């Protein structure tokens, strides 16, 4: 079964991994107090860049950061969920307000980097001094993105629009978007009727969607834990596959609408 017409877009923090990667690194390296002190006064993206410089000036190395990232918590179901969706031919992508260094390091450590065709996040690179620098996804020297739902450094809705626009109408791509945070609300609003959004229940994106679900055109499937996330994601992949197969057979053999097709069995992972 090849599901190359399905694009699965994951947020990263608290959607793939079981915590916030920024908080994890700062806490594990003992800089929570400074982070909490500066947090109210600075945008998060700028704050993380400053924190990485503080870590370096206090003798923390890139190797220290890598070792901390390798210990980051991930639910045991998450890795097989991603590998199974990839094996089925889905196009997997990440849209995250973390940074490339954190995400790449974590995914490589868990052996799932090759499952993702694209990672959209804030650039993170090691400068000549050996300091990890974190830049904004959007160039702040250019015109602002003008989305009042998103932080200045990243509008995930614009990223989803770009991905949607990269496909022709004939390709009939269908999106499944998974997220938990406030920043995942804007891209949820940009999905189409044929798409699906999977907000994490009792997290900011779920709260925002619940205020007025009619604003979201996509079909909404909430999830609470990783077992539920895995089950729903693969049910949706099966659902899309059945609909596509039904459409193909109907077009080819002119089956009347009331003739039932056999159900696709759920994946047993």
- The low-confidence parts are 255-269
Largest sheet: 6 strands, parallel
**Alpha plus pi helix count:** 10
The backbone outline, from C-alpha atoms, is globular
Task: Give the C-alpha Rg.
Answer: 20 Å
Mean pLDDT: 91
- Which structural class should the secondary elements be placed in? alpha/beta
Terminal CA distance reads: 16 Å
Strand order of the largest sheet: 3-2-1-6-7-8
What's the helical proportion of residues?
A: 40-55%
Q: Can you characterise this structure?
A:
This protein is of the alpha/beta class and 269 residues long. 41% of the residues lie in helices and 14% in strands. The protein is built from ten helices and eight strands. The strands form two sheets. Strands 3-2-1-6-7-8 form a six-stranded parallel sheet, with helices on both faces. A two-stranded antiparallel ribbon has the order 4-5. Strand 2 (91-99), helix 6 (100-109) and strand 3 form a beta-alpha-beta unit. The longest helix has 28 residues, at 226-253. The model is unreliable at 255-269 (pLDDT under 50).
Write a brief caption for the model.
With 269 residues, this protein is an alpha/beta fold. 41% of the residues lie in helices and 14% in strands.
């Amino acid at each position: 079964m090849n599901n190359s017409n399905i694009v699965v877009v994951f947020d990263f923090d608290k959607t793939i991994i079981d915590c916030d990667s920024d908080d994890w690194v700062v806490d594990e390296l003992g800089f929570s107090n400074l982070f909490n002190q500066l947090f109210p006064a600075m945008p998060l993206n700028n704050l993380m860049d400053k924190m990485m410089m503080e870590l370096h000036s206090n003798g923390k190395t890139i190797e220290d950061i890598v070792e901390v990232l390798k210990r980051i918590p991930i639910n045991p179901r998450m890795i097989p969920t991603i590998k199974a969706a990839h094996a089925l031919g889905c196009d997997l992508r990440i849209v995250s307000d973390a940074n490339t260094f954190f995400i790449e390091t974590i995914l490589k450590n868990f052996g799932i980097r090759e499952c993702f065709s694209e990672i959209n996040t804030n650039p993170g690179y090691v400068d000549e001094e050996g300091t990890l620098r974190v830049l904004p996804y959007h160039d702040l020297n250019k015109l602002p993105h003008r989305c009042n739902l998103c932080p200045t450094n990243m509008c995930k809705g614009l990223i989803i629009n770009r991905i949607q626009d990269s496909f022709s109408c004939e390709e009939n791509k269908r999106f499944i978007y998974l997220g938990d945070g406030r920043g995942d609300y804007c891209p949820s609003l940009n999905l189409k009727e044929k798409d699906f959004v999977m907000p994490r229940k009792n997290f900011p994106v779920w709260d925002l969607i619940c205020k007025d679900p009619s604003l979201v055109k996509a079909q909404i499937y909430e999830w609470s834990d990783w077992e539920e996330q895995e089950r729903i994601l693969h049910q949706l992949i099966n659902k899309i596959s059945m609909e596509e197969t039904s459409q193909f057979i109907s077009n080819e053999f002119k089956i009347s609408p009331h003739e039932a097709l056999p159900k696709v069995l759920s994946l047993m992972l």
